[in-house]
Amino acid sequence: MKSSIPGVAITQFVNDIPQGCSTPDFEKKPLSLTLQEGKNAIFRAVVKGVPAPEVKWSRTQKGMDDPAKYEMSFNSATNEFILQIKSLVLDDSDLYRCCAVNAYGEASCSAGLRIIQGRTGSFGLHRPLWSQAVLKKTLQNSKKMLRKRVAAPKPKPLDKEAVWQLLLHADRRDYEKICMKYGIADFRGMLRKLQEMRKDTESEQDKLIQSLKNFEHIKVDKEGNATFSLEMELKNSNSNVYLLKDGERLRYGTGDEYRKHCLRRVGRRYYFTVNDVQPEDAGVYQVRVEDVPVFSTELDAQAIPARFRQPLSDVRCAEAGDAEFQCVLCTPCHQPLWLHKSHPLQASDKHQISVTPDGLTHKLTVRNVGPSDSGLYTLDAGQGSSSAWLLVECEWLAVGCSHGVLGQTETPYGKDGLTPHASGQLGQTGRSGSLYGPGGLPGGDGLATVRVLKGEPAELSCTVSKDNVTGTWFKDGLKLTSMDGVVFEKKGLVHKLIINKAEDIHAGKYRFEGGDVKTEASIFVDKVLLKNLTSVPTVAKAGEGVKLRIPFEGRGPIRAAWMKDRMELGDDTRIRVDKTDTCTTLSISSCDRRDCGDYKVRLKNDSGVLEINLKLVVIDKPQPPAGPIKIVDSSANNITIQWKPPKDDGGKPVQRYLVERQQVGRNDWEILGETPRSCTSFTMNKVEEEMSYYFRVRAMNAEGVSDALESGEVKAAGKASPGAPDPPEIISASRDTITISWKAPCKTGTSQIMGYMVQKRKKGTVTWLPVTNVPVKDKKLKVTSLKKGVQYEFRVAAVNAAGTGQPSDPSEPAFARDPTKSPGQVQDLKVSSSDSSSVTLTWNKPEVQDGNDVKGYEVEMRRCNSLSWTKCFTLPAESTSCRVQGLQAREKLFLRVRALSDGGPGEASELQACAGAAAAAVVSPRLLIDDTVKSFLVIKAGNPIRVKIPFEGSPEPVVTWLKDGLPLPSRAAVSTEDGSSQLLLRAAEYSDSGTYTVELGDGLGKRETFNIPQPPGAIRLEENVPNTVTVTWDPSASEQWENNLYYTVLKRESQKGLWHVLGDLIYNNKFTFTRVVPGRDYYFRVVAKNELGASHPSETVQPWRILKKKAEFRVKTQKYRGVNQNQHPRFLVPLKSHVVVMGSECHMSCAVGGHPPPKITWYKDSRDLSRDPNYFCTNDFGVCSLVVLGVTKQDEGEYMVEASNEVGRAFSKAFLDPSI
């Protein structure tokens, strides 16, 4: 059985459940939770079932035996079963299962619990733990109040159609949010309606749109412009594309001019842009092509960020002075929220907050600033914020610099929000290591890596928050008690390790431990010159501070410049360049991968220029793998995904990839496994048929795990249907039957082939008709009831349990007719002429037998020294003459010719010939005018005219063409070769009409006339018989010399209507039209035709009309008699039996008539289904449907529907057969 709640599994214990009883099911399942360590977790579930089920709770990894830890209860007021887990710890993260059991079945579902580790330590200097929670809560409440104060404009109420269109194009993950926003409670009904709307919308879109895909919903960029796009190809490029907002049409620009709403088209992609987005621009945007909706997307008011016309700027202020921050908004905000290092600020004497009446300009004045006021200040305007630093210039900073302690003055707050004091001296330093524990992280800073030259002094120092911390130094893992040239020093909170003169033995990894405080760094001792420092790069981790220090000496003044990628570096929020009389230092407060590369220091004075090269390597976790995730294979059993390596590996090689998946509708991600760095694909074998999943991949290196690359929704394939077989073959044919055969397809799907569906169609049509209603088990079929003389094509499709597969390609066309006989021998085969390399043959057609027309001739030859015959031409000859070329002089050979037809080749006629030998006798020249030539002469007026006349004669005669007894015009071209002469007119004109004569030169010529006919004469119309019209006309002038001239009569019923043929092949000058409708106007046209084409038409000018007489009639009313409208119930469309795959839905329907409307009752095996929740019955205006949800073996049997009213009752029955 299938539950109505997603994620609930139901197991039925018995085959037949008594009436009134049911298996357990969940009305409300427990939800997955994510909670902080130390809190309580509460799972709630509501179950149903008759008899009432028993509910049990369990977890996957361990038992739940501790009653003080796990409290299970039942709330009778809400019917909720409750599991409460007290005092959460990290070990409580697990998958918890709720199971409801009664005598007839079991229902179970699972919910996840994720524990977040709580923070330790205090938030700032000497700040108690409880204030951290208080500050966090205060900040959250302040932001909530701010969001309430910045009220977005109320959206216009949308009509239901706009909401459904928005759901139709929304992501499935947004369905629940949209339904809650617009008050749609029936989630399953919503899904059914969307499925119906999708079919109707696609059918309407197919009329106007060729393709539609790749939707991108609306997004707002940093410049405050909203953009959404789609890829669309219109069938008609002139179709109108409209943009609507909340149902109202918008005007948009398409050129370079600035408009509020713009459309830009790149190829097939349409980009719609809303410039300068304001809160009133929120709403539902829709794209339409003509009146057909194409795409809908919503711009939420909460997604519109607050824009700053003038953002906050960094402020430098001397100690005890007043610092002022000011910014200007584009949209008003009257009650903003100011924050200092994430702490909300209230108006006071210390912090003076002001807002102009228009709500656009905001000021914050910090009075009497001190070192504790330094840091990041932020103005939060609800949907946007602006931040800037306050830098307090105090005395301790200058003193620290004079002693060579290089602090980060540009960004006085490190990544932990504290003032850093640790530094390196006389070398290149990069911050390394970490400081943690109650005496470390909140109030101090760690050691920093130092690079010095051999013989120079070096120093490591760190600061802790408590004075009573006793520190211990370690080098390379060994405790240091004493060491040559090393001095340990402690002054208050600062612990130092000082090396007066660095030697090789001082290089290594140093660690400081004091109580729970640990921090470590390295000292590098270089022996090479500074200009070779690029060979030993400085390595730092992302997010840490780096200091590169270069000492120098020389005659002043000395100018020092730091460069990277040929660009000089200056001070900004992250980078600071410092210079003294003896050294220059580059400080990067929080380095990242973009800081990698080669650096150059240029020192310049009046004596010259010195350049020093350095190299910095920043290592970090890799970027996400390059996407998108491709689905290489998807079947019912497995899914294979593929991705690309990340574009940036973070400076460390990728070690492996982590693959996870999430089932659609669930919140938890499941780890599938890992792949090595060389493998960028993964195959998962445990998938459910037709189930949808999301996948994500992370790259891992020595520094950590990258962000995830996520895929779209991937659906596992269901049972595979078979592939397409090869085209069927024609075995035999008769006048009304054709026998075909075929082979099984190569791909049979996931189940055995049950049979084949055979279809047929007439050649030249597009509609395929079924030959049989049930699958054919054999691979051979005799198709009957065909029309004689019609040409048919056939195709087949294999059928298995998954359904009907792809059809095959059509077979070769075949005629439905009895087999024909082959043609007879050709007549009078002879050699008409020959030369040194060719022989010309002529012959006559064979006698026609049973209407078996000749389709061509096959010419073969055999040399005297060979026994095999070879074809002289690739294609059969169409005329009764041919020329065999490529022969040797005086070569003897045998030639034979046979006729070809639909019944096959005829008997061959053979002769012996010799190349270069004269013909046995002189052949008189004559024109070979036959049916083949006349059919070749059919052309259309206005096209090029080609007239080809074959002839024979030996010796070859001289051919002369004349028009109307005169030489041809200069436009005409004549070519004579190989026993034929051709006349060519490239563009036929009406002036080319006339008599064309072909004359063969030795006095034995024959005249042949080729005319384009002249138009007929005047047309006369007469009504000799009532309601008929007789059309007569004067004959065409071409009748004098044209024997095959005929006429065509056409008519139309208006001056601009279409002409319709009334009569064709008329050989006289008279035609009678009998279907004349009185009262209509008729126009007539007559055209003269021959085998070359048609003449100009002759038409009537005035319309022909037969007056319509008005008929008189009388109406005799009858007395009204009441009609008894009562009718017995009757089934207009009865029930049909169904064969359904188990687990799917079955829809049974029928149509019922009767008056009064009959009452409908459904039965299964004589059991009333009206109150059975497993069946869904509807009756819409006489169309009755029964839906069986999740068909099982118990649903097999006879179903009956009863229709009854006060007149009578009727029944209809059908069977349901579930299949596996």
Automatic annotation (TrEMBL):
InterPro entries: FN3_dom (IPR003961), FN3_sf (IPR036116), Ig-like_dom (IPR007110), Ig-like_dom_sf (IPR036179), Ig-like_fold (IPR013783), Ig_I-set (IPR013098), Ig_sub (IPR003599), Ig_sub2 (IPR003598). Residues 24-114, 438-510, 925-1011, 1129-1212 form the Ig-like domain. SMART domains: FN3 (SM00060), IG (SM00409), IGc2 (SM00408). It holds the Pfam family fn3. Residues 412-438, 802-844 are annotated as: Disordered. Residues 624-719, 724-823, 825-920, 1015-1109 form the Fibronectin type-III domain. Residues 184-211 form a coiled coil. The lineage of its organism: Eukaryota, Metazoa, Chordata, Craniata, Vertebrata. It comes from the Eukaryota. This is Immunoglobulin like and fibronectin type III domain containing 1. GO terms for cellular component: M band. One of its GO terms (biological process) is sarcomere organization. Keywords: Coiled coil, Immunoglobulin domain, Repeat.
